[in-house]
Specification:
Strand content: 15-25%
Number of strands: 7
Distance between the termini: 29 Å
Order of helices and strands: HEHEHEEHEHHHEHHHE
Shape: globular
Strand order of the largest sheet: 3-2-1-4-5-7-6
């Protein structure tokens, strides 16, 4: 069973709701790309059967909003543009009452069962401004969640970097993949990196196999996820830099006698960032989807990152990672860990200004065969 690693819920200072601007920026960058992909690649002739005009969309890893609502609105607008005033030529059993397609949208918001769905649905756009029927779909996206061939369009943004569990061997002193005193694979041994890559291969394979069952032929899967261009070191990715600094802050607490080193040895972040060649091979191995687009999206320009920018980034990472750290170390330790990381803002900013740009990610469009 997949483990659950929810974002911090509610509307508090450290909540995902108030600290997810970077995911929003990534979605904004991809907005026109998504619209273009839906209009050009979504297969109209295989989407509908009989007289049904229900169109089902899923956002996998929706968290607690508000980004998922912006994304859904963007997807719906793209589909409506695609099918506006469509004539049912070439379709079997065309509707007899009208030649104009009026779609009814059903949107499923998916995340782990421990996700704060109460906050999510409390912040839904009002019915007058919402052009869809909303439903929750709790559960791990590494397995089946919907009936066979029932979904026309699936989306996931900044969720597929999460593994279903911590790779095996990382906390075993007898294992070649033991990752003592480290919280991630960045700057760790090749064996540790391979353990993460192996787990990602299993999880991405499971995700694709589940979606292959659920997506109708001609339907699309649109993915936005952190990625590493081939030839770039894992230590040059901004998120990985933060994981390293968080780990160093924990070791500071070990040296101060606040945290037992064994607790750090027993903790690893279940997050992996693939290269473009890794991702392409996994999709091709699955064999159920054609790759319509798989490209690295790099911001055209980026202002110099200063300490105040780092402060905002740390709040973002706390919203995303605070839950999993707190579950293992407790609130008091997590407060101290992030305080110590904030104190390293100048050092972090210097490092970030010498590596790959923030918001570098993969934009992927897959079409069900």
């Amino acid at each position: 069973m997949a483990e659950s690693f929810p974002m911090i819920g509610g509307n508090g200072t450290y909540s995902y709701t108030k600290n997810s601007q970077y995911q929003k920026q990534a979605s904004d960058i991809a907005k026109e790309m998504i619209k273009e992909a839906v209009i050009e690649k979504l297969d109209r002739k295989t989407i509908f059967s009989g007289t049904s005009t229900a169109f089902r969309i899923v956002d996998f890893g929706c968290s607690v909003g508000p980004n998922t609502f912006f994304t859904v609105q963007n997807l719906i607008e793209a589909v409506q543009t695609k099918f506006s005033s469509i004539i049912f030529q070439g379709l079997e059993n065309p509707p007899t009452t009208t030649k104009t397609l009026e779609l009814e949208f059903q949107v499923f918001f998916n995340d782990h069962t421990t996700n704060d769905f109460n906050t999510l649905f409390a912040s839904l756009p009002p019915p007058a401004d919402r052009r869809y029927h909303a439903a929750a779909a709790p559960g791990s996206f590494h397995g089946r969640l919907f009936p066979r061939a029932s979904i026309q369009l699936a989306h996931s943004s900044y969720a597929l970097q999460w593994l279903s569990k911590v790779p095996e061997g990382l906390t075993d002193r007898k294992s070649t993949a033991w990752n003592g005193a480290m919280v991630h694979y960045t700057d760790s041994s090749e064996q540790v990196l391979n353990a993460y890559a192996g787990q990602y291969e299993k999880d991405m394979g499971a995700f694709l196999s589940a979606r292959a069952e659920e997506i109708v032929s001609g339907g699309l899967v649109v993915l936005i996820l952190p990625g590493i261009p081939d030839g770039v070191s894992h230590s040059e990715i901004p998120a990985n830099v933060f994981y390293t600094f968080l780990g160093s802050s924990l070791l500071d607490l070990v040296n101060e006698g606040i945290v037992d080193k064994a607790e750090v040895d027993a903790f690893n972040l279940p997050i992996y960032t693939p290269s473009d060649s890794e991702l392409r091979k996994l999709i091709e191995k699955n064999g159920s989807f054609s790759i319509e687009r798989l490209e690295v999206t790099i911001p055209k320009s980026q202002a110099k990152i200063d300490s105040s920018h780092v402060h905002r980034l740390i709040m973002h990472f706390r919203a995303a990672l605070g839950g999993i750290f707190t579950k293992h170390f407790g609130n008091d330790v997590v407060d101290k860990m992030f305080d110590k990381t904030l104190a390293k803002s100048e050092e972090i900013s210097k490092t970030l200004n010498t590596i790959y740009p923030l918001l570098t990610h993969f934009f992927v469009v897959l079409k069900r065969n």
